[in-house]
Design brief:
This protein is an alpha+beta fold and 149 residues long. The protein folds into 2 domains: 43 residues, no CATH class; 85 residues, Alpha-Beta Plaits (2-Layer Sandwich), CATH 3.30.70.260. It has 5 helices and 4 strands, in the order H-H-H-E-H-E-E-H-E. A hairpin with a 6-residue loop joins strand 2 and strand 3. Helix 1 packs across helix 2. The longest helix is centred in the first third of the chain and has 14 residues. The radius of gyration is 23 Å and the shape is elongated. The two termini are 29 Å apart.
Length: 149
């Protein structure tokens, strides 16, 4: 038989429950490596931690993730890809993947997927700005998608 789950406001949780969540976060983030040190740090007994650890989880609101995959033809010259990556970072794009083929005829095909949620310009303007970089032969938008993530 399955378990029932409830979402409750933090204010109704006992101090031990709140501290259990903090211990789990310390362990997950690598701030503490052992349970003993983590429970001491938050002022919780190990027995209370073990009592609640499998039953309490923080609710994490998932934001919508916007992705854009770009296809570029880049002249095979030192520093061209670096210029592209710098430009994407300048506009707050988060680079998720980079795939580059071996250059043929002095041109490499590069595919870059970026998280575009925090771009301070539109994807279309980013493409235009990338095309303005010397050594960039072509930039095309392959896909633009939105997902919960």
């Amino acid at each position: 038989m399955g378990k029932d789950f409830y979402i409750v406001a933090e204010e109704i949780l006992s101090p031990a429950m709140k501290k259990t969540v903090k211990v789990k976060e310390l362990l997950k983030n690598g701030e503490e490596e052992q349970i003993k040190e983590a429970v001491e740090r938050v002022g919780l007994s190990r027995s209370a931690y073990y009592k609640y650890r499998d039953y309490i989880f923080p609710f994490v609101k998932q934001e919508r993730q916007e992705l854009a995959t770009l296809s570029l033809l880049v002249a095979d010259q030192k520093g061209n890809l670096s210029k592209v990556l710098t430009k994407i970072a300048q506009y707050h794009g988060n680079i998720l993947t980079i795939n580059q083929d071996i250059p043929l005829n002095q041109v490499a095909h590069v595919t870059i997927t970026i998280e575009s949620n925090n771009l301070v310009i539109s994807v279309e303007q980013l493409i235009s700005n990338l095309e303005g970089i010397g050594g960039i032969k072509r930039v095309k938008l392959i896909t633009q998608s939105f997902k919960q993530g």
